[in-house]
Amino acid sequence: MLKYRFPGQELIQLEGDFVQIEELGDQSFIVSSFDQTLNYMWSKTAICKPKQSEIPFCIEQPAYLSQAEQIIADLSRGIADKIVYSRIKKSNAKIKDPQRLFEQLLDKYPNALVYYFENTILGSWIGASPEILIERYQEGFRTMSLAGTKLSAENRDFSFKEYNEHEMVSEFIEGQLRQIPNANIKISEVQHYNTGPVTHLLQEFTWQMPNYVLPLLIKHLHPTPAVAGLPKKVAQNYILAIESHQRELYSGIIGTSILGRERLFVNLRCAQIIDGYLYCYVGGGFTPDSKAQDEWLETENKSQTLLDLL
């Protein structure tokens, strides 16, 4: 069972299952892992062998802070410009009705891709992602640079660290788009984008390109510095070395890739449902200006997108 709703569209409900595919292409609803090594498409006729979901590792605060201090030290000595370090937070109580939680997400986050599925090989996942990876619209394509995080209730401007973090993402995206001939790129002003418990810095990019460029652009664009870091390959290798959990579908690609109607999001604000508990995947962008405790609080705040509704 799969249910999802894009911003401004009607709810879609499908029966079937995910099946593994070699790469993303002209398919209906798809999901991928963070590094795109695992890709899945929804099939209405699939018959898959059930797989038991394993309990993911949830790091405790002292261990997280120790690791965070090491990341900041590594960044300060120049190993990378930015590293996105993630963790998993388990809900304190079981959720009685995942369907009810899904309905609450639909109501609270009209500008997000909201989804819920139960699947034999991937398990049960639920989420409300605000971040567009690539979306086709009438005049071409668009994406967004979404980075820098503060509590929505905080009465302050974004810090230098947060503006710098966002600028890295914007410069990376612009650099990728500049490689497309005659792209006619347009970039919006930096905006504040409220996503519920937290507010981000946002810039939108629009451009034109032939259809055949899209698969290559996806590979070059994702994972962006908003979910990996910079330089991209250095950050990905560093993440593999330091994170004690598998990201699974978190920060992967999710959406529809039907030719002419592509709507692909980055899978953020998401959780696995295992034995009735939510395992929320959250991350924060580290730069040399980061403070370990602030990064921990950022992940706590991001987890409230789902946990506030329990």
Structural account:
The model has no long low-confidence stretch (mean pLDDT 94). α1 (61-76) crosses α6 (292-307). The protein starts with a strand and ends with a helix. It has a single domain (2-307), classed as Anthranilate synthase (4-Layer Sandwich). The chain has helices spanning 61-76, 98-108, 160-177, 214-221, 232-242, 292-307, and strands at 2-5, 12-14, 17-21, 29-32, 39-43, 82-90, 113-119, 123-129, 132-137, 140-151, 186-187, 191-194, 198-207, 229-230, 253-256, 263-266, 270-274, 277-286. The chain contains six helices and 18 strands. The strands form two sheets. Strands 3, 4, 5, 9, 10, 11, 12, 13, 15 and 16 form a ten-stranded antiparallel β-sheet that branches. An eight-stranded antiparallel β-sheet has the order 2-1-7-8-17-18-6-14, with helices on both faces. The protein has 310 residues and is an alpha+beta fold.
